[in-house]
Each structure stands twice: as C-alpha cells, then as structure tokens.
Amino acid sequence: GWSAGIWHSVAGASGNHAFVTGSSVDSEELNYSLTYSNALCEGQEWQTNYAASYVYYDFPDMATKDADMQELNIGFAWPEICPFAVPSYTAVYMWGSKGGGAVRNAEGFIHVFGLSKALEVDGLENPLNFSWDLTYNDDAGVPGGVVDHEFTHTKFGLSTAIDGLGEGTLTPAIYYQISM
C-alpha cells in the first residue's frame, strides 16, 4: 500500500555534507518521501517484496538550486529465498531539483545490495532489525567532481518499530557507515 515519510537531520560539528557545502557544521536536511509497496508470489519461495519511492531532499539553509535533490527508486527483497537473512536490491536515480545550480550535474544511478535479519528480543513488541548494505555509485555525481563508478560505502543498521502512535509508527534507528 501507500505510505509517506519525513526524515530530519541536524548535523553539528562533525559529519560530512561536503558534496553540497564542504562542511556539515550547522547543516540541516529534511527528506520527504512517498512510497508504494506490495508483494508478488506471496508465501512462495520466490516471494518478491517491492517498493517504489519518490524522495525529495531539502536543505533548508541552502539555495534550492545548489543543494536540493530528487530521487526515484525501486527496491526488491526476497524474504523466503534465504534461511538466515533477507537479500535485497535497490536501484536509485537522482537528479538536482532545479537547473543551473551546484547540483546541476549531480545526477545518475546508484545500486544498493543488502541483507537484513529480524531478531526477536524478549520484552520488545516488535523485532530488532539488523541491516547491512553495500552501495555502488554507477553515475550519480558530486557537484564539480568525478565519479569513478565504484563501490562507495557500506552501512550497518539496527532499528525497531514502535506502534500505537495513532495511525503512525515511529521507527528509531542507528546506522554506522564506512566509506571506501
């Protein structure tokens, strides 16, 4: 079915948004998403869960033409094919929101390969979800930079869901990224 999301980040004196500003100090980011998800061959070994999303990346402290990006993506996961984890693949296409700015040439494809595992924990209503992914940048550029068409980073994550907030769900998460 359909879902919508808002993600917010406020960077302090560390981190790196250098692709936009050269620094992350006092950098704020808001992401707005709209997603449709469903499954094919439900309950069978080849069950394929899929989700297609539109994401708008908003950097409110910077000019839209110099920072804001848009994304279309489609992701697939196969929850029944592997006994110890759920393999996944996501194809992403990104582009600058307005022409003529610093992100005008920062468009292209990104491919994300991943594994996830739901871990049941006593005392938690919902499982802890461990995730790992590996990202290949095929073409999405850095303003003024050159893309080498290579694996750029890997990311580890741990999240859970908190239900009972009206019609919504809160999903706290922590991620650790290693750049290559």
Would you give an account of this structure?
It is a single chain. By secondary structure, the chain is mainly beta. The protein is built from 1 helix and 11 strands; from the N terminus they run E-E-E-H-E-E-E-E-E-E-E-E. It has one helix at residues 64-67; strands spanning 2-10, 28-40, 48-58, 69-77, 86-96, 108-119, 128-137, 150-159, 162-165, 168-170, 173-179. A 9-stranded antiparallel sheet has the order 1-2-3-4-5-6-7-8-11. Strands 9-10 form a two-stranded antiparallel sheet. A hairpin with a 7-residue loop joins strand 2 (28-40) and strand 3 (48-58). The protein is globular, with a radius of gyration of 18 Å. The N and C termini lie far apart (36 Å).
Show the helix and strand layout.
Elements: E1 2-10, E2 28-40, E3 48-58, H1 64-67, E4 69-77, E5 86-96, E6 108-119, E7 128-137, E8 150-159, E9 162-165, E10 168-170, E11 173-179
Antiparallel strand pairs: 1-2, 2-3, 3-4, 4-5, 5-6, 6-7, 7-8, 8-11, 9-10
End-to-end Cα distance, whole Å, is: 36 Å
Q: Portion of residues in helices?
A: under 10%
Note poorly predicted spans. none
Query: What's the helix count?
Result: 1
- Report the biggest beta sheet as strand number plus sense, adding barrel if it closes: 9 strands, antiparallel
Shape: globular
The count of β-strands is: 11
- Helix and strand succession? EEEHEEEEEEEE
Question: Which whole number gives the mean pLDDT?
Answer: 86
Q: What proportion of the residues form beta strands (DSSP E)?
A: over 45%
- Main-sheet strand order equals 1-2-3-4-5-6-7-8-11
Radius of gyration: 18 Å
Helix/strand-derived class?
Answer: mainly beta
